[in-house]
Amino acid sequence: MGIRARGGSDRSADRCGDELLAIGAFARRSGLSMKALRLYDRCGLLKPADVDPNNGYRRYHSSQLFMARLIEMLRWLDMPLTDIAEILSTPGERAAEILQTYWDGVERRIAGQRELVNLLRTSLLGGKSRFPRYQVHVRHVADQLVLTERSRVPREELEGWASEVKQRLTSTAWAYGGPSAELFIVYHGPVTKNSDGPVEVCVPIHPAPAAHDDAATRREPAHREAYTTITKAQFDLPLILSAYEAVQRWINDHGLTRTGPGREVYIPGVDINTAHLHDQVCDVAYPIG
């Protein structure tokens, strides 16, 4: 495949045949350390072709050089070993999709970190201009009947839990003619390393008698709310916390009070997973009095 270890030469396996190489020779040919090869063996990523049952001495086929270099290049992307294992065990086209999905996530994280750095630089300057990137507005929200599910969720499980509940409640809403307004998630408590909410997913619906009587519902009272709209790049932790802080600061600066917990109101028709980094994905909001 024309792949070379940096600073080394490569005699093609096709020219020398699929010979067995001692671990030291394979390490030199692949550009990997013997320590790395032992790690990849333990993880099941790159098993030796032969292991001496008496002394545990490892030998590799020269045809495994490509796989060794592929693993190392993926490691240069800071890819976790579990993701590398999935790529290695998957046919080519799907493996390329997995790689692209991983890198999209890296770019999303970097974009969020870039936004956070810009925000922190501005914040360190002090004064009232510490949050210039967030424009806060006020709107009236009418009384709503909502399908609801509330739970305590550890931070590492929040994304998966919220995604599953949003899909399920949205599906249930069609028994009432479909969602009547934007889906929102209410954070009744912080979700951090030491706190798990609780968190509540809400899907507004039109009242419909006898439809899904077992579905949990509640009334969301009419209220005004202060909100700011954020992009996908601003959505992930920890940057989204600065949006919450910006709205809270705006409320305090305008002599208003928060009358309910913070929430994320999702823009209809926008899939956060496929949205571009600069696409608007949701509003960060607080009810106000």
Largest sheet: 8 strands, antiparallel
What is the total domain count?
Answer: 2
The helicity comes to 25-40%
- Average pLDDT over all residues: 85
Distance between the termini: 66 Å
Task: Provide the CATH superfamily of the largest domain.
Answer: Regulatory factor, effector binding domain
Question: What would you report as the Rg, rounded to the nearest angstrom?
Answer: 26 Å
- Topology as H/E string? HEHHEEHHHEEHEEEEHEE
CATH domain fold name of the largest domain: Multidrug-efflux Transporter 1 Regulator Bmrr, Chain A
Number of strands: 11
Estimated structural class: alpha+beta
Strand content: 15-25%
Strand order of the largest sheet: 4-9-11-10-6-7-5-8
Structural shape: elongated
Subunit organisation of the chains: single chain
The CATH class name of the largest domain reads Alpha Beta
Count helical runs: 8
Tell me what the CATH architecture of the largest domain is.
Answer: Alpha-Beta Barrel
Poorly predicted tracts of residues: 1-16
Structural account:
By secondary structure, the protein is an alpha+beta fold. The chain has two domains: 75 residues, Orthogonal Bundle (Multidrug-efflux Transporter Regulator, Chain: A, Domain 2), CATH 1.10.1660; 152 residues, Multidrug-efflux Transporter 1 Regulator Bmrr, Chain A, CATH 3.20.80. Helix content is 37%, strand content 20%. The strands form two sheets. An eight-stranded antiparallel sheet has the order 4-9-11-10-6-7-5-8, covered by helices on one side. The chain has a three-stranded antiparallel sheet with strand order 1-3-2. α5 packs antiparallel against α6. The protein is elongated, with a radius of gyration of 26 Å.
